Predict the structure.
Amino acid sequence: MKLFEYRGKELFDKYGISVPKGRLVKNEKDFSGLNFPFVLKAQVPIGGRGKAGGIKSAENLKDAKENFSQIMGMDIKGYKVRKVLAEEKVNIRKELYLSITLDRSKRMSLIMASGEGGMDIESVPDEKIFKEWVNPLIGIQSFHIRGIVSKLGLEKEEGKEVAKVISKIYKLFREYDCELVEINPLIIKKDGGVMALDSKVNINDDAMYRHTDIEPEVVELTPLEKDAKEKGIAFIQLEGNIGVIANGAGLTMATLDALTHYEGKGGVFLDLGGTDDPEKVKQAFELMKKAKPKVIFLNLFGGITRCDSVAKGVKAVITKEGIDCPVITRIKGCNEEQAKDILKDAGLITGTTLQDAAQKSSDLAR
Amino acid sequence: MKLFEYRGKELFDKYGISVPKGRLVKNEKDFSGLNFPFVLKAQVPIGGRGKAGGIKSAENLKDAKENFSQIMGMDIKGYKVRKVLAEEKVNIRKELYLSITLDRSKRMSLIMASGEGGMDIESVPDEKIFKEWVNPLIGIQSFHIRGIVSKLGLEKEEGKEVAKVISKIYKLFREYDCELVEINPLIIKKDGGVMALDSKVNINDDAMYRHTDIEPEVVELTPLEKDAKEKGIAFIQLEGNIGVIANGAGLTMATLDALTHYEGKGGVFLDLGGTDDPEKVKQAFELMKKAKPKVIFLNLFGGITRCDSVAKGVKAVITKEGIDCPVITRIKGCNEEQAKDILKDAGLITGTTLQDAAQKSSDLAR
Amino acid sequence: MAIFADKSNKVLVQGATGHQGIFHIGAMKEFGTNVVAGVTPGKGGQEIEGVPIFNNVFDGVSETGANTSLVLVPARFAKDAVFEALDAGIKTLVVITENIPFHDAMEFVHYSKYKGAVLIGPNCPGIASPGKTKIGILPGQIFKEGHVGVASRSGTLTYEIVNSLTEKDIGQSTCVGLGGDPIIGTTFIDSLNAFEKDKDTKAVVLVGEIGGTAEEEAAEHITKHISKPVFAFVAGRTAPPGKRMGHAGAIIARGKGTAASKIKAFEKAGVKLAKFPTDIADLVEKYG
Amino acid sequence: MAIFADKSNKVLVQGATGHQGIFHIGAMKEFGTNVVAGVTPGKGGQEIEGVPIFNNVFDGVSETGANTSLVLVPARFAKDAVFEALDAGIKTLVVITENIPFHDAMEFVHYSKYKGAVLIGPNCPGIASPGKTKIGILPGQIFKEGHVGVASRSGTLTYEIVNSLTEKDIGQSTCVGLGGDPIIGTTFIDSLNAFEKDKDTKAVVLVGEIGGTAEEEAAEHITKHISKPVFAFVAGRTAPPGKRMGHAGAIIARGKGTAASKIKAFEKAGVKLAKFPTDIADLVEKYG
């Protein structure tokens, strides 16, 4: 779960990492108590808000009012701004980059830092990014921190402060089961001291059950995706018009790919997983119908899952509630023949192979 | 460092393990606020105080006064009682044994528990003691706790409470760098609930630097041993009358053993360690003199240590301050000849071999 | 021969008495797997399909000589279960459980290395060496004994591919489901090394998907160290960036982990790529 | 041949620029040890006795190919130093440092196992294979190349025994100082196994002391697995219970760890015991 900047900063504060004085502002009254100049920052779960006009300075109350009303409610890459953070400006002497993320290959936490902060880390040349890997069996050690800090070209006292921040964000990263903690920029202030000007904190969804203090806030999902998530169905809305239902994430992806091959375009990714429970199938189909695809493509491989059982679920939905778009099916594996019979009986179109079914679906969706 | 019972219980309390209501009592006034009946317990850093009369019940104020004055100041196995703990009595339904210690062979923490609490664990048969080893790379896990609790013959709720205590004492054991945490007995109260009636907490001396909240209290040492500890000299007082100075713990022990072979008896174990610093040698000799041995046996093997350098230190002490007991020396290794000359010159007796010198020392000490 | 799993595996099932446990103990026994024990705390003394159930892994191992564990426990108990198995001396672990927090997986993957154990998964369907053993939840009927090794990040997609191989009478030496999580114990490279050494394996099929750089690393490894022919399918060519495509590991993050990059790497390494999963069998037939 | 250390060890010294570091870099080089690097954070770029100093182990390893580390840093930095060396790829570690908290030692001993490294110590004098290399602070002049292996929990006592062997013209294959702490990386059993395999070792001398049960376990191991003659000396026959005799590990606790128990175990295993440390040489001459 990606936390909004302000919530990441709440966690920073909890771990003793300084952040600028600030607050969420809902209206003009909330400006009182903040000293000018301050910055108004759109809270959106996506990068690039600065360029999109989601960050504006306020030198005085007039600025603040104007800019606040511009930012609140604006659309940034599809996300409507519903929260604005106001923060007092800080005098910056130096900007650094600092993050901890997951290295999938080494299966370790990866600390990255750079003396070139404030810009997109992808645009910083590799030799200016310093890395240390933390083995989970030992956790963070002094040598990791020394290894990074010694290369950032800092003065001694600055180095000590940055070292403390690294140790604290590692603690946060580990204790909150994060996928990512990023501070960009981490600044050295003109009057000394180190401060996090931004925050990106991303918590592993699978670990949310043990962080009950973090209120879930599913900002990246569409309403239908939220609904699916609550029902425990893997459901993603895409840009096309063909709704794909398959069993298994890999097979579902491969089905979308197959459509593309025939110039079709997937509009929904719906992975049934290992289930052949007719009730679950029914829920999935209902969700799919709400997404209003032009065509539904049901691609099943029955391993442990019995195809006939899934087919029964599908037939039940269609018989009871009808369906207003064509459904193409391709069925393979366990109890394949029975399933095909059931589906034909329900009036669905059956493809012979994956290719055949993908082509039929694509043609119908055009 | 062995903590007194009451200090161990302070740590238990810190970790959320219940202990009986109680306090240290220095005089009769301190009884107020405690409900009768209570128990008065001598605070000594050694077991067996119960048998020695160091634990007495008090049903009323008269009892309390009498028993308090008996316990305070009594001698238990050489330790004068200077602190008495008064604790309210608890109704016991069941007594358990629980400890965590160091398994040197497996190099892991060892959790031990038994349904037979309240007695010396050495007297409990092996098949009634349940063990789990905790690998330091993973720390305590639910399976360790399950493995122990399931064997103690407890009811479900009791088991849950005991599980919590195990998890807490492991945390204490690890966080305070303990060598031993023992609760004997850990009781199940008549009205439910689990409580630690006694505490043995032993903190690794080498880790005391990171536990500055624990005030050192060197209760097991003689005044000379304390003095030596402050000076960083390995010095132990024993029952015999020959003061042994050697370099290296193993060699010092072997020297004591050699004396025993000739019916001599070591009175001081003084390990110079790797030093040949004349100032350190001087300090060591001064300490040794204070212990008033009948004979001093200096046994040196010069490896990296230069024997002549040690000899110079010895000569300096003896020339300046004199010595009122014979000093037998046995010198071997680096710069052996020069050292022998220096020591002869200072009037000391030189043995030819370890055996010869040990025999001479033993003979002189008789 | 086979890799990671053969007749010598004596399998203990952790989470044996649940719905899944009961079903798959039966299915594995039917496949010929030597299932010797089950473990569910508090249910010791029962029997499932003739297999004795123990309260803990240590007892199961000491009573039955189990050397392998199939982990089916719920995600929040998985780390504890894996640690327990490793401390009890289990040397091969197959972790089926999905949705395990990846910090937990990181810990147990490294702890299994410390113990010198092979850990497959998590979030995987398991492993099958046709004619020998199956440890996991893969459907037994799709396999056929033979000489193609399969290693895959996806479950059903693997079944689809294996099924199409079998339909063309192309048997398999071992099929390993590596798992769809970002942190997994056994990788493409581990599998490639094992297949390379395995006398019974003549060609290898890799089934990759978007997310991470495992395919790119495998490709580099193939160029340097693998002499046997390798075939691959990569799922997710049309997946949008930033979305987790069903598997926790299947995500294009910050421009990394695209199917295009993986396909390019494989092509560079001389790996033959299939457009559709069911095409793999044709490629193997033609070039394998 | 030799055990644990020979000409192939390229030694990096952690804590190189302290008094001890400077002295022992010189002493090791004189013995013939291939000392290639030193590490002291913040002192990179210096040289000690012609050996380049680096700011961290990783740089030292990548610049010089060091595969071995001698750890001389103060106790409170030792765990960090050992972890750093292991993560940098060091495969043999000799930890001289005394007074390391034993919880720290437990962690790094197991982490070294995970890394497949040999860790000797802590609180040990190091290891010497005469004619080949010396990694540690043992006095070089006492050794002589030969066929007796020595493993010891004590420092000076070992020097005494080695010296008396050399005086009788009995050379040594390798002498390992295991360390005087309760938690050590390499044990009597590890050393015995290595000596048993080592063609150049014809007899083994063990130097034990009170505390723990390492000698009892060694004795049992000798009975089962060791064919070469073993000699032993055990220090502390007259040590009182409950007192730490200089070494952190030398303590008789709760009736366990007495010299009597160790001597009995060795005798039962057919190990010849010396009364005085200097007698070992006579025994080896007579029976070895």
Summary: The interface with chain D takes residues 110, 113-114 of chain C (CB under 8 Å).
